[in-house]
Structure formats: structure tokens, C-alpha cells
Amino acid sequence: MTCTERRDVGLLLLRLGTGGVLAAHGAQKLFGWFGGGGIEGTGQFMESVGYRPGRASARAAGLAETGGGTLLALGLATPVAGAAAAGAMAGAAAVHMPNGFFAQSGGYEHAASLGLTAAGLAVTGPGRLSLDSALGHAVNRGWMVPAAFAVTAAVTAVVVGARNRRVRRREEGEQEALFEE
User: Region 147-155: what's the mean pLDDT?
Assistant: First the structure.
């Protein structure tokens, strides 16, 4: 096997593994599959961690994970798929950040790993064993990488920033209530 063939097989494995995990997590949110909460349960959770409105947040996260993961696995529209998945994982990491890095403590390790792998695939490209390659890279152009990450970064900054402000206000309100008792 040549180095080029090995690279393409490696990218295929990364895409299938990362895309599959992301798609499964998104399916938990959207459809309640694999023990997930579906839109209703995930929406309630999203509200509890500061993402409002909860149902819309659940739909957005579920679509970014399911859609981005499926497209990554297929190697189709790889820049957009990777950027969308990375943005969703940045939102998840924000929730887990107070618990530190390691997942065993509820930290952001898993979200960071998935997000960085998705981003790396968006930048590197899907390889020759992909639908992007089969379609002549019609939706995998060089200019799409910075465009997809710029849009994702802007949306993620607004959404996570608003969530972080809500959480800070809630925590300040809880502290004030403690002092009043």
C-alpha cells in the first residue's frame, strides 16, 4: 500500500469514526435514539444549562451533530460538515468547562476531541475515498474552509456568549439569595 493509499484509508477511518459518533449523539437529541432525550428532553436539559430557547437549541445542536457527522462520514461537503460539528462541540465544551478537562469528572475532554477531529478533517479534506472526491470536490473547495469556519465561529461566539452571560447572571442571583438568607 502506498503512502497516498494509507492516507486515504486513514482519513476514511477518522471520518467514519468521528462522523458516526457525532451522528449518534445528534440522533439522541433529535429522535431520542440510543437512550437520548429527543427534542423535548434535550430541550429541557439545554434550558437547564443556559441555552435558550431549549427546544430550538436542541434542534440546532442535533442537526449540527447528526448532519455534520453524517456528512463527515460520507466525506461530503467536508469543510461545512467539519465546521458545523466543531461549532456544536464548542457549545458542548462550554457546558463541561467548569468540570475541568477529563470526562471522568464531567469535563470537556470528549467534546474537545470530537470538535478538534472534525475541524482537522474539514481542513485536511476527506481523501480520495469520499463522496467529495467522487463528485469532483464540487462542495469541497479551498475557499469553503475559511468561509465555513468564519460563519461557524461567529454563530458559536454569539450563542455560547449569550449562554455564558445567562449562566453568570443566574449564579450571581443565587449568590445574592444566599446572602439574603
Answer: 98
